[in-house]
């Protein structure tokens, strides 16, 4: 009886909420990956979702360079990259951007000063 009562009726209210993006990124940084150094795997997942057949890395103490073939990532997509971690993904490109955002956030958390990603032909 209780379940039927709860399923019947209209929503009482509708609304929206806003996240403090910096606090959300900090929480992701602390809890998203079992090891923050796995950020490299997030970049690999992104490249694979973008159709990469070849991936190359150069990693130093505080910088990373990654190159892969496959689909290019547009500059407009990178401007607001971190928001990709918080949106619902419905296609491979959105999932790729989410993995890039999670990887970038984790890399930032361990002190990576700079990373460069070159994609496409």
Describe this entry's structure for a reader.
The chain is of the alpha+beta class. 42% of the residues lie in helices and 14% in strands. It has a three-stranded mixed sheet, covered by helices on one side. The termini are far apart.
Describe the SSE topology:
Layout: H1 2-7, H2 21-31, H3 39-49, E1 55-59, E2 63-68, H4 75-79, H5 92-109, E3 114-119
Parallel strand pairs: 2-3
Antiparallel strand pairs: 1-2
Helix pairs in contact: 2-5, 3-5
The SS-based structural class is alpha+beta
Distance between the termini: 61 Å
Which radius of gyration do the C-alpha atoms yield?
18 Å
**How many strands, which pairing sense, and closed or not: the largest β-sheet?**
3 strands, mixed
Q: What assembly state would you assign to the polypeptide chains in this entry?
A: single chain
H/E element string?
Answer: HHHEEHHE
Classify the beta-strand content into a percent band. 5-15%
Task: Strand order, main sheet: write it out.
Answer: 1-2-3
Number of strands: 3
Helix content: 40-55%
**Average pLDDT value?**
79
Instruction: Give the overall form.
Output: globular
Helix count, per DSSP? 5
Low-confidence stretches: none
Short description:
The chain has 121 residues and is an alpha+beta fold. It has helices at 2-7, 21-31, 39-49, 75-79, 92-109; strands at residues 55-59, 63-68, 114-119.
């Amino acid at each position: 009886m209780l379940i039927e009562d709860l399923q019947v009726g209209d929503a009482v209210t509708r609304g929206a909420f806003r996240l403090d993006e910096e606090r959300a990124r900090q929480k992701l940084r602390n809890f998203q990956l079992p090891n923050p150094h796995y950020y490299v795997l997030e970049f690999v997942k992104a490249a694979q979702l973008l159709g990469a057949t070849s991936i190359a890395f150069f990693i130093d103490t505080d910088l990373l360079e990654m190159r892969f073939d496959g689909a290019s990532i547009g500059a407009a997509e990178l401007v607001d990259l971190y928001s990709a971690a918080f949106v619902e993904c419905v296609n491979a490109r959105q999932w790729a951007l989410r993995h890039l955002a999670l990887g970038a956030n984790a890399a930032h958390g361990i002190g990576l000063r700079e990373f460069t990603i070159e994609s496409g032909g």
